[in-house]
Amino acid sequence: MNLLEVKNVSKIYGNLKALDDVSFNVKKGEWVAIMGPSGSGKSTVMNIIGGMDTASEGTVILDGVDITKEKDKNLTNIRRDKIGLIFQQFHLINYLTAVENVMVAQYYHSMPDEKEALAALERVGLKERARHLPAQLSGGEQQRCCIARALINYPALILADEPTGNLDEANEKKVLEIFKQLHDEGATLIVVTHDIEVAEQAQRTIVLEHGRLAKIVENEAFGDSGANAPEEEGYAAKGGLGQYGKPKRR
Amino acid sequence: MFWRMVRGTLFRQKTKMIMIAVTIALGASLATAMINVMFDVGDKVNRELKTYGANITVLPKEASLLSDLYDVEDGGEETGQYLKESELGNIKTIFWAYNIVDYAPYLNTNVTFNDKEAKLTGTWFDYTMDLPTGESVTTGINRMKTWWDVEGEWLKDSETDTAMVGSALAKKEAVNVGDTIRVSSQNGERDLTVKGIINAGDDSDECIYVPLETAQELSGRDGAVSSIDVSALTTPDNELSRRAAKNPDSLSVKDMETWYCTAYVSSIAYQIEEVMTDSVAKAVRQVAESEGAILDKTRLLMLLITILSLIGSALGISNLVTASVMERSKEIGLIKALGGQSGAVSWLVLTEILLTALVGGVAGYFAGLGFAQIIGHTVFGSAISVKPMVIPIVAVIVFVVTIAGSLPAIRYLLRLRPAEVLHGR
């Protein structure tokens, strides 16, 4: 069952076509990577899927709702209820402690619950650092705090934009390990990355080039998810990642 | 959580918040000072103007008529009608008794001095009398003619053998302080020691001033007074007071009550007439009108200063709050990305600003009370009374100015799209 359907989406900024007729689906519980070089439209796709930007053309159906037709207020509610966001720059509020940063997401969703926030931090291995300010946390710890914040409201879709972009190898491993756990537990993940190592962890990799969908690559270790048939025909061919390398399960 | 975020911002952006508080405090202090002074300026300007003379003259009824018809200054002598000295205390018993600052009776008579005719005026200099109410009051011309330049000293009312001589007359007759002059009238002759030479710049420079008792003796009019100058604190005239001054009987009962219970110069004059037998009390129109005009202009000036300072504060707040919100655009974008509606985020920012405004407003209010006292002592030489009703006025002003100053920031905040700040789009 598709959680997300992206149909013929284009995004035009003046004369620039940041996205050009992009279509793909994501099934519930699937882990998808969106890959491409700088300026390929990865973040634009993420913003549109995440309801933080609107498509110039096409439709995006998230959990049965066409979010391209929704107004700002409803998009905010959709972000709050259905999406967990993870950023490359972490975007933690620097005057709040780790646990308070997690509780902010609870506060705007329903009601802050410190116990639950601490449990989320424990899940990402940050319980001991819960009372520390972001400035007192390492990059990896900040990203794990960001993940705990994204998970706290049990979102239908977790959207991660370059989640390991600012991390060293050790911390990258920790973050990917958390993603694996989430995926094993049935979470739907879309990870935007230009890192082949990260993309290799996903079931499928959607490759963008110059705003167009270049190809969709199935990770053989997972087997065919079947999420893209028949929509991807004509947009992507199954196969390797080309210049990005062939994904393999670690 | 909300308050944790508010507290976090207030402490994290301490410098910026202190600057906003200081800006608000500055505006609030000026508003507090100006409004307090504005409420008190009526009395202050009135008191100030009282130093330039009386604003009510009381004459015997017939003398007033003569004065109106023929511009005769001393109607008492011509008509033979006088006011009673024994009723002078009644002036301090009228409804607006506390607005009567000073008053002085005059008794004019002609005497012979160095074989020439001279005008002699008896008056109170610094006279203390007991009132029918049991209180006592000290009044006289040394309190009313503060602009007189006196060589020597003022007279004492008890020293009935002393005199003050006008500078023109003194020059003409070569009289100096310490000399003894002989004045005579139909009722006798008196040797008077000159204690002071008056330089008033008006007709007083041609007169001899003596205690009232001496003038009464020389004129043979015991207990008589030909006129009274009254200096009273008054409210500027308006249409009602002008109508009442023409004919109080034309007023409706309600208007009469309003007029009588307001310190218009005409209503105070009316009340003086009520307690002085056969008297006519008239406003010295020029003084009364100057008071009103000066008061209105002073108030307008203060109002303009207050408005300009508040506009300045609003602009200052606007700049600081907008800068603060722009600095926090990532944080605000994040909150919106996490599901915070624009209204909720605006409320968060407004709460922070309003709390800062509260601190700035309270500090500004107390600083303003200090400024008001500085203005009071520097300009008027006395303290400005603190009016409690200024507190809600300043609170409303601070609230409105803060909200007005925050509007550009709120507008920016409402338009802010999370994607633009979180991904640099």
Structural summary, described in words:
The complex is a heterodimer of chains A (250) and B (425). Helix content of chain A is 30%, strand content 26%. By secondary structure, chain A is an alpha/beta fold. In chain A, strands 6-7-8-3-9-10 form a six-stranded mixed β-sheet, with helices on both faces. A four-stranded antiparallel β-sheet of chain A has the order 2-1-4-5, with helices on one face. With 425 residues, chain B is of the alpha+beta class. Chain B has two domains: 2-47 and 292-422, no CATH class; 55-283, no CATH class. Chain B is 54% helix and 19% strand. Chain B has helices spanning 2-12, 14-50, 61-70, 75-79, 141-144, 167-172, 212-219, 239-246, 253-260, 265-275, 285-327, 329-337, 342-380, 390-415, 418-422; strands spanning 56-60, 83-84, 100-113, 116-123, 127-130, 136-139, 149-152, 162-166, 180-185, 188-199, 207-211, 224-225, 227-232, 279-283. In chain B, the strands form three sheets. Chain B has a six-stranded mixed β-barrel. Chain B starts with a helix and ends with a helix. The chains are: A alpha/beta (250), B alpha+beta (425).
Can you list the strand order of the major beta sheet of chain B? 3-4-11-8-10-9
Largest interface (CB within 8 Å) is between: A-B, 33 and 26 residues
Helix and strand element order of chain A: EEEHEEHEHHHEHEHEE
Amino- and carboxy-terminal Cα gap of chain A: 27 Å
How many structurally independent domains of chain A?
1
Total helical elements of chain A = 7
Average pLDDT for all residues of chain B: 84
Strand content of chain A: 25-35%
Oligomer: heterodimer
Rg of chain B, Å, rounded: 32 Å
The CATH architecture assignment of chain A turns out to be 3-Layer(aba) Sandwich
Rg from Cα of chain A: 17 Å
Shape of chain A: globular
Q: Which series of helices and strands of chain B comes N to C?
A: HHEHHEEEEEHEEHEEEHEEHHHEHHHHH
User: Proportion of β residues of chain B?
Assistant: 15-25%
Number of helices of chain B: 15
